[in-house]
Structure formats: C-alpha cells, structure tokens
C-alpha cells in the first residue's frame, strides 16, 4: 500500500532523515517508534508532501508521489493527522468535517458524518461547537474524523496519544483497531511503547534520522536490548 | 451644527462607507487566505471606475445600461484579478513576503500606465445614475437619492458575504485556509483554485466598489494609491481578515471624515482649527490610536504564526577579500569621477549616492532588524524639510545640513516608539500611517512648509556650490553613513537586533530588551534617511511634498528588494540600478512606469531571492 525508500530530508541545512525505508501493507498497522527529535514527525511530513524530500522514493499503491503537492497526495487516498492536531478553531465540528470531505473511493471505506459520529459519539453531541472550544481529547478525535472524511485508503497518525488522559488514550487505541477492521492501512508514530503494543502489527525504530530496527511487535517484545538502547529514557 | 446638519453629515458618512467597505472587504479576504498584501488592489478599484464610466457610456444612460455597466466592470476586474493570481502571484507564494509586495507594486505601475494609455491623463467624469439622479428632502435638506441607495448597498453586500462565507462549503474552505492553509492542503483542498477564486472575489469587490462610485467621484490616475492607503487603514483598524471588522472600520472612518468636513473651520480660544483639512490625516490618527490600544484591530485576532517551512534568514557574513577589494575599487572610481565623467553623470551619481544611503538605512531596519517599514519616506522627507526650513529660518547651510537628520531622528524616535510595539503587517501599516501623517502636515501647512509648492531656493553654501564640490560632499557623507550602518551590524548592537528578529522570545530570555533595541535601530535608520533627505534637498535646490509621499517609500522598498535583502551590498546595487533605470527610462518613454513595472516583474520572477542573492548563490555553488 505504502512504501518509502531511501528517503532523505532536511530543514534548511540541517539534515534530519537519512535513507529511511518503510513499508505498510493493506490493512496493516505499522508503528514508527522513537524518542523526541528522532525524526518521526519529519518522516510523516515528508510522506504527505509538507516537506519536500532531498531524495528518495515514496510510493502509494505502486505510484510515486514524491513530487506531488500535499493536496494531490491526499486525493490519492493518503490521509494525514498532524501531531499538533491543527483543528480549524474558527470552524464548527461539522464545518471542520466538511473541509476534509473528498469524493468516494472504490478501494477505501466510505465515511459520512453520521458514520463518524458512530465511531466518535462525543463529536456527534457537539456538531455546532467551534473547534477552538473543544478539549484536547475531543480535538484529537475531530482531527482523525476530519481526515477520514477524505475517504483515505491509508492514514498517517502523528503521535495520537500525546498529551491525552489515559482513558482517552485507551479510546484512541480502540479507534485505531476499528480503523484496521475497516481495512485501512495505518502508519502511526509513537513514543509510547504500551500504546504501540496495543495497536500495531509491526514496528520500526528510528533514531537520529536512521531506521535502527524493524520487526513484528512480538519480536520487539522479546528483544529487551533494542528497547533499552533506543526507546528507554 | 444644527441637528439636521448632523443628520445629513451622518448620512454622507454612511454613503461613503459603502464603497470603502467593498474594497476593504476584498483586500481583507485576499490577505486572509493568501497572506499577500496586495498593493494592486487599489489599481483594480481604479480600473473599476474607469471601466464603469466607459461601459455606461457604451450601453447608454438608461437604468439597465448603468447597472449593467457597473456589474460588468466589477466582473471584468474579477477576471483581471484572477489572471494576475494565476499567471503571476501563484509563482511567488514561496517567495519572501516582501518580494510578493514588490511584485504587486510593479503591477500598480503597469496598471497605472495602462489606464493612462487607455483613458488619457485627464480625469473622466462619470454619468449620474439614471432614475436616481434626483434628491430627496431629509430634515429640510436635499440629499442625493443615489447616496441613499449606497447606504442600503453596504449592509446588503455584508450580508451576502456573510452567507457565502458561513453557509457554503467554499466559505468553509476559505475560512479554513485563512486559519491554516497548509493543513487545508494536506486534507486535499486544492489551494490553487481556492486562491484564484478568492482573488477573483476580492477583485470583484474592488472593481464593483470603484464602478458603483462613478456618480460620486471622477476617475483619476491618482485614485489607485489614495484608495489603497484608505483601504489599508480600514482593514488594519477593523482587523486583518475580518469582514465585519472592515465594515465597522469603514463606517467609523467615513463618519469621522464626514464630520471633519461638516464642522469645517472652528474658532476657539483665539486659534483657528480647520477640521476639513484634517480629513487627509484623521484616518491615520484613528489607525495609530487603534493599533496602539488594540494591536490586531477592532475585530481582529492575533495573527497565527505562518506555518510551513520557515524562511530563516541566512546569517550575515563578513565581506570576503574580493568584495572589499571591489568596494575600494568602486570608491576609487567614484573619487575620480569628476575628472572622468561629465556634469550629467556627476548629478546622476550624486542621486545614486543619496538613494544608496536611503536604501541602506531602510535595509537596516527591514533586513537585520526585521521591521518592515512601508513609510521610510517620512524620515527622508523630514530630513529634507528639516534642512530646507532650517536654512530658510535659522542657520547657514552647513548647520542646516545637520539639522535635517536631527529632525528626522526626532521624528523616528517619536514614531518608532509606537511602531516597535507592533510587528509584521501591522507594523508596516503603522509606518505607512506615520508617513502619510507627515505628508499631510507638510502638504497642508502652507504658511510654514509652503504646502504643495514646497520650499524653493535651497542651495548649498558658496564653497559647496559647484557640482564637483557638492558631489564630493555627497560622496563623503553618504559613504560614511553607509559604512557606519554596516559597521553597526557587526557590533553587539547589530547582533542583538538580529537576535530579536530571529527569536524575540529567546532574545528576551537572555536579557535583551527587544523594544529598546528595535527603537534605537528605528531611530538610527531615521537619522541616516534624514541625512539622505538633507543631501537631496541641497542637490536639487528645491523640495516639494513628493519627498514624503507614498511612492518615495515604495521606491526605497523596490531598491532594497531589487538588490536582495539578504546581503548588505544589495541595497546599494538596488539603489544604483533603480535610480539609473528610472532616469534612463523616464527620458525615453512616456510609459516609464509600465516599463519599470515590467522590468521589476521579470526580475522578481527570475530571481526570487533578489539580484545579489542570486549572484551569491550561483557563486557559492561554483565554489562548492
């Protein structure tokens, strides 16, 4: 579904990513683990086209998207949920969803506000609330719902558990599993290993812009040395 | 004033507010979504007026012909706006903000000369609206029927815009992109079409605002810049990007102006105060007050930090040995110029030196200090008038030459105190406001400044009277000023300025008093701009309010940006090229503005980093 090869990216003169390679198959939940500043967000931003890579190949369903603009990539069925949520604070919940709406796609689940409110009942109860007047957890739900309105076949989730109360984190894990059930491909970046275990099939570990480890979640479970070296703080 | 007079003035204010609101709403929409401060917006308003006049003549003076003409003029402006966006501005969204500004100003020049070519230099009087050319009696006074219609039209357009923005998906997209256009893009919103659409709508409002005014005001070639400064004020007072704010501010300013005219001359405590003369400046006073009390306008909100790949300025480098050698060589040639060149070359070089100093002083605050001034002519003009008036009333020329910069620095200290409290577009607008206030004072204070006639017979002292002697004086003072300003950028003072520009918070945290440094920088730049103004005054022998007018400020910006803002030598090169080009083109064609505009556009499109920035980049690539 989604594959990245030899990705190099930089902010100005600061080289951030070095030859990143990743892959996520259809219906798979893949987690990109790493500490703060390891390059997780930069990787996701490069994939969606918000940051133009220096070099490398990004393929969405065997089609190269590395030279496309973010809106073109989004319209090919790749959704992006940013770390800072970036809700449109002046718009209501419904209007936020409306901005995300794109045409129906054959190869991906079809979302309407009604279906999304089944997934996120909280949002259904505050359809006319301004985005700026919502709690962090509600905003996190809205930002995912907004992206789903584009009917993506794959989504990039940037640290969805960050800054949320434990009960909301649990809800978030349920949501991601529900999306997997729908057949969505999910690439999620995380620092929280427990959360990763709750949702992911496979993991990559990124450190200082290099992929240091790749394997299934159960492999990672049994590999204490790797966890110690790259993830503990 | 009697009650009926007050009522009539109030209605007059309402009628003027409508057209102003249309144009301001258009600018506000465009700015909100694209973050481009579109100088050419006033030009579309002007085109709307001209096209409205011509179309109504063509269709015939019937109600259908009139309103058909007005609407088609608006639509034509929309089409022109969309074309400008799609062919030109779209290529510049990644370019630095100031360069986009330069491009829109080049458009102003081109459109102005187009209007000159199409409609000639004479004012064009518009027809009255058929069926609405009479007057009704209100409170015993006659009031034009057409103005009543305008009063009604304002809220109608406000309502339509509100519906469009809050009740349609397109409106949601526009508001979303206003808040975070990068995120909207990541959600699949095609910014290209959205921006073109917003530009078309904004231009429609500008063109319609111009066309609907034809029974009230003649079409002139001056109206583009005069409306744009009015509209900037309205948009800033109302809050950038807020349509209701623009409506409120248009009402406020139109009412205040109407009452200034209504009150007229007042005699109180033995002083004559002319309120009608205040109309030129009162809106800027309102803006200055509003910006100091509510820095984001009446209904605006703190601007969100622009998202996306940050445009960090490159650090300033010490000049290389080659560059120093080149500088010495240029100076050597300049010293020998009286022997090598003719009188004409000397005068042109003198002008170039004066404007090089002016442009370096502007670069000092725009570049390293990060304060985008749109009104640097204020200090050039204060220097020129300070010197000229000191010579007339007080002291000999040698002292007057230094009185000029002193007056300019004083002005910069006062204006700068307000300006450094703001940042970004708001700061730019406030500097523009202060320049305009200075201009109005100079223009209207006949008894002291000579009003529109200016000051004549401002010649240097006898020993500096020859062209060669004055050339050397200019060379010495301008070079000294430029070198001093450059030197300061490599001193701790300059480091502090750059630190404040790059990260106000971090600068604050290490104990730098940001405002004090910016204030000092602003004042210093004013001082040297004033020196340039004083030198200019004595080189020409006479000065007029033109030295303080908006085009002079824009000239400065063009010089700095043409040369490239990232380098120190850029502003000097920009000043030289610009002054030389202006001189050459003006002598060879009647349409020098358009020619200059097209040259600027080509340069901007070809070298989005400015000319010297491009050279340096190429140089760096070859070396590496």
Task: Give the helix/strand layout.
The complex is a heterodimer of chains A (233) and B (624).
Chain A: E1 2-11, E2 14-24, E3 29-33, H1 40-48, E4 55-60, E5 63-64, H2 70-75, E6 78-81, H3 93-100, H4 113-119, H5 121-124, H6 136-148, E7 154-158, H7 166-181, E8 185-190, H8 193-199, E9 202-207, E10 210-216, H9 217-222, H10 224-230
Parallel strand pairs in A: 3-8, 3-9, 6-7, 7-8
Antiparallel strand pairs in A: 1-2, 1-4, 4-5, 9-10
Helix pairs in contact in A: 3-6
Chain B: H1 3-34, H2 41-59, H3 63-87, H4 97-119, E1 135-138, E2 141-144, H5 145-167, H6 169-186, H7 191-211, H8 223-238, H9 243-263, E3 265-268, E4 271-274, H10 275-293, H11 321-340, H12 343-366, H13 377-393, H14 397-419, H15 424-444, H16 446-449, H17 467-489, H18 492-502, H19 504-509, H20 514-540, H21 550-563, H22 569-588, H23 592-606, H24 611-623
Helix pairs in contact in B: 1-5, 1-7, 1-8, 1-9, 2-3, 2-4, 2-7, 2-8, 3-7, 4-21, 4-23, 5-6, 8-9, 8-10, 8-15, 9-10, 10-15, 12-17, 12-20, 12-21, 12-22, 13-14, 13-15, 13-20, 14-15, 14-20, 17-20, 18-20, 21-22, 22-23
Characterise the protein shown here.
The complex is a heterodimer of chains A (233) and B (624). Chain A has 233 residues and is α/β, with parallel strands linked by helices. Chain A has helices spanning 40-48, 70-75, 93-100, 113-119, 121-124, 136-148, 166-181, 193-199, 217-222, 224-230, and strands at residues 2-11, 14-24, 29-33, 55-60, 63-64, 78-81, 154-158, 185-190, 202-207, 210-216. Chain A has one domain (2-230): 3-Layer(aba) Sandwich (Rossmann fold), CATH 3.40.50. In chain A, 36% of the residues lie in helices and 27% in strands. In chain A, strand 4 and strand 5 form a beta hairpin. In chain A, helix 3 runs parallel beside helix 6. Chain A is globular and about 45 Å long. The model of chain A has no long low-confidence stretch (mean pLDDT 93). Chain B has 624 residues and is mainly α. Chain B folds into two domains: 3-223, no CATH class; 349-623, ABC transporter involved in vitamin B12 uptake, BtuC, CATH 1.10.3470. Chain B is built from 24 helices and four strands. Chain B has a two-stranded antiparallel sheet. Chain B is globular, with a radius of gyration of 25 Å. The chains are: A alpha/beta (233), B mainly alpha (624). The interface between A and B is medium-sized, with 28 and 22 residues.
